[in-house]
């Protein structure tokens, strides 16, 4: 019931349209049925025994309609056609609304997720997110459809009930009482459906979470013939899902199967009361019986539809919880100062931790503009975290990051990020063309920007040599390209919108020496007009930088280039910076 009310309050206008249309349809149907009585009375020549029959005949005569069989039949058929037309409009409205519900839930979830804090986003399993967008949004929208039908059927029950009341209030009352008893008696099956639906929602999430994890590392598992472990787990989860689905099917079918015999028994009792106990006229009994069958049928239908709604409701609530959690983790949008990058970036007394794990303690770092800075350090020391702080994906626990002297806290993170080009450590490309991968999220850019960015990243020659050039589809996660090619496409993506601040996390780790040389030269050239910070272990890249820092014990240490004797310099085939770094360690 809570879901039913929630749907109505979430989409009040659309629910109201649907209900008005269905109410009109119910009235049309009710009106055409009342014409049955005079039709029957005329057919059996029994007008004298039926009050209601006489009254309707009189009303029709007042309207200038002679109550002939033909006229009655026309009224019934006309009413039914009108009803069908109204139902068509109503059902179309329901269909459109169902699509709208799915779309708005999806957009709400995606919107909440994309504006959530990076640390929250990181903790979400990919499979669970895709399941929410695909499966849960659809199931929740199906739930809305069932809710709308439950409401519409309830309206129809009211219409029928009202019509039936005029004919025999006793029979109507009895049939409602009987209907309520039936609904209560079969409610246990609804409970089973609710549990089975919730189980399916939970299992679908687990299954898709596991599946997407496995698909992410399927190559290494396959190479070691260990994919059968994944197979076994996926099989087990799929079987459990089937079990839950069977339970839902069983309870649904049991409800339908039990409704029929109970219905027939109750009808027999109803007829007995009407004919034998109350001694109603034959025509009234026939119409009453007809109306009672309709009422009980409608009540049965309501219960069946309600059961469908209950089977889907857990998907809606799971999605709602996910949306609310993402909203609660929304990243700050406060900050009104417009960022500039004319002077430099300063990190002052930065403290940062991931819960119990402390990463930075009193970190201080100066990054001058139009320069190339590299940061190195042992694995896990916090190099990527430093980049996260610089692009405001993480906030320091204390201390300040100053952009041209303005605290990053006073700047809207999105305004700041518009000025940033970022190359992540793991190069994951979209399953799309090279040009789409480069221009993604930047609709104002075009072919010329992509070509310039590819040239800057030293990737133009290999892309141009491909049969489809920029239109080459790179495959799942860019799998049809080599690691080095992927990395250069990622660098081109970061350069496409001509950022002022370029952040690179191990940008040359997958490159051959020649490609690395090209990228280093590119970065040195770019550093004349923009500010670059690269995290790297690669001697060539470190050596190409203007400023070199190492991270150690939560602090940054400036590494000065080794200024040895001429002999030392000549002997140095290992990059100077690397020597200096190893000396400083
Ligand atoms: N979201 C997170 N939640 C908790 N701990 C994290 C999170 N991200 C990173 N860490 C931990 O913080 C430490 C620093 O991680 P970070 O990725 O910044 O290191 P790194 O120096 O870039 O390492 P590598 O060179 O191996 O990439 C690591 O020990 C890591 O396990």
CATH topology of the largest domain: ABC transporter transmembrane region fold
For the record, the CATH architecture of the largest domain stands as Up-down Bundle
Q: Let me know the number of strands.
A: 10
Number of helices: 22
Bound molecules: adenosine-5'-triphosphate
Structural class: alpha/beta
Q: Termini separation (Å)?
A: 67 Å
The percent range for helix content is 55-70%
Task: Kindly provide the name of the CATH class of the largest domain.
Answer: Mainly Alpha
Number of domains: 2
- The radius of gyration is 36 Å
Question: Overall pLDDT, averaged?
Answer: 83
Main beta sheet strand tally, sense and closure = 6 strands, mixed
InterPro entries: AAA+_ATPase, ABC1_TM_dom, ABC1_TM_sf, ABC_transporter-like_ATP-bd, ABC_transporter-like_CS, P-loop_NTPase, Type_1_exporter
Organism: Nitrosospira lacus
Keywords: ATP-binding, Cell membrane, Membrane, Nucleotide-binding, Transmembrane, Transmembrane helix
GO molecular function: ABC-type transporter activity; ATP binding; ATP hydrolysis activity; ATPase-coupled lipid transmembrane transporter activity
């Amino acid at each position: 019931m809570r879901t039913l009310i929630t749907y109505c309050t979430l989409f009040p206008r659309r629910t109201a349209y649907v209900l008005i249309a269905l109410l009109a349809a119910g009235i049309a149907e009710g009106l055409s049925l009342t014409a049955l009585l005079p039709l029957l009375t005329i057919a059996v020549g029994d007008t004298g025994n039926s009050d209601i029959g006489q009254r309707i005949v009189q009303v029709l005569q007042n309207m200038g309609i002679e109550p002939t069989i033909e006229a009655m039949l026309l009224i019934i058929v006309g009413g039914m056609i009108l009803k069908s037309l109204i139902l068509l409009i109503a059902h179309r409205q329901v269909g459109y609304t169902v699509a709208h519900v799915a779309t708005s839930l999806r957009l709400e979830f995606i919107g909440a997720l994309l504006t959530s804090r990076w640390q929250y986003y990181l903790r979400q399993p990919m499979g669970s997110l895709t399941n929410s967008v695909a499966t849960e949004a659809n199931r929740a929208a199906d739930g809305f459809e069932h809710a709308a039908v439950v409401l519409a059927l309830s309206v129809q029950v009211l219409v029928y009930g009202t019509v039936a009341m005029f004919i025999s209030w006793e029979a109507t009352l009895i049939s409602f009482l009987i209907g309520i008893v039936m609904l209560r008696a079969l409610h246990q099956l609804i409970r089973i459906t609710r549990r089975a639906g919730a189980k399916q929602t939970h299992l679908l999430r687990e299954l898709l979470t596991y599946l997407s994890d496995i698909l992410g590392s399927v190559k290494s598992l396959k190479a070691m013939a260990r994919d059968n472990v994944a197979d076994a787990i996926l099989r087990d989860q799929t079987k459990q899902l089937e079990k839950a689905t069977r339970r839902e099917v069983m309870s649904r079918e049991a409800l339908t199967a039990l409704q029929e015999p109970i219905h027939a028994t109750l009808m027999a009792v109803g007829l007995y009361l009407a004919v034998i106990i109350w001694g109603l006229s034959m025509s009234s009994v026939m119409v009453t019986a007809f109306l009672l069958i309709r009422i009980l049928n409608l009540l049965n239908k309501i219960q069946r539809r309600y059961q469908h709604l209950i089977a889907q409701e857990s998907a809606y609530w799971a999605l709602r919880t996910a949306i609310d959690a993402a909203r609660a983790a929304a990243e700050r949008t406060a900050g009104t100062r417009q960022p500039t990058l004319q002077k430099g970036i300063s990190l002052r007394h930065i403290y940062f931790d991931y819960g119990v794990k402390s990463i930075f303690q009193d970190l201080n770092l100066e990054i001058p503009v139009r320069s190339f800075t590299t940061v190195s350090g042992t694995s896990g020391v916090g190099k990527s975290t430093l980049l996260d702080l610089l692009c405001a994906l993480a906030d320091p626990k204390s201390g300040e990051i100053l952009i041209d002297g303005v605290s990053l806290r006073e700047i809207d993170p999105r305004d700041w990020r518009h000025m940033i080009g970022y190359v992540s450590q793991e190069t994951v490309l979209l399953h799309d063309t090279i040009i789409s991968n480069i221009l993604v999220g930047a609709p104002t850019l075009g072919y010329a920007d992509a070509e310039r960015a590819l040239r800057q990243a030293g990737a133009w020659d290999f892309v141009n040599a491909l049969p489809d050039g920029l239109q080459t589809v790179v495959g799942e996660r860019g799998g049809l390209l080599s690691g080095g090619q992927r990395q250069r496409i990622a660098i081109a993506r970061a350069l496409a919108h001509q950022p002022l601040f370029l952040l690179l996390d191990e940008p040359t780790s997958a490159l051959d020496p020649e490609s690395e040389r090209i990228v280093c030269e590119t970065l040195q050239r770019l550093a004349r007009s923009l500010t670059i910070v690269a995290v790297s272990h690669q001697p060539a890249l470190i050596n190409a930088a203007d400023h070199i820092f190492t991270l150690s014990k939560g602090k940054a240490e400036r590494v000065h280039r080794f200024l040895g004797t001429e002999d030392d310099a000549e002997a140095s085939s290992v990059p100077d910076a690397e020597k200096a770094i190893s000396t400083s360690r």
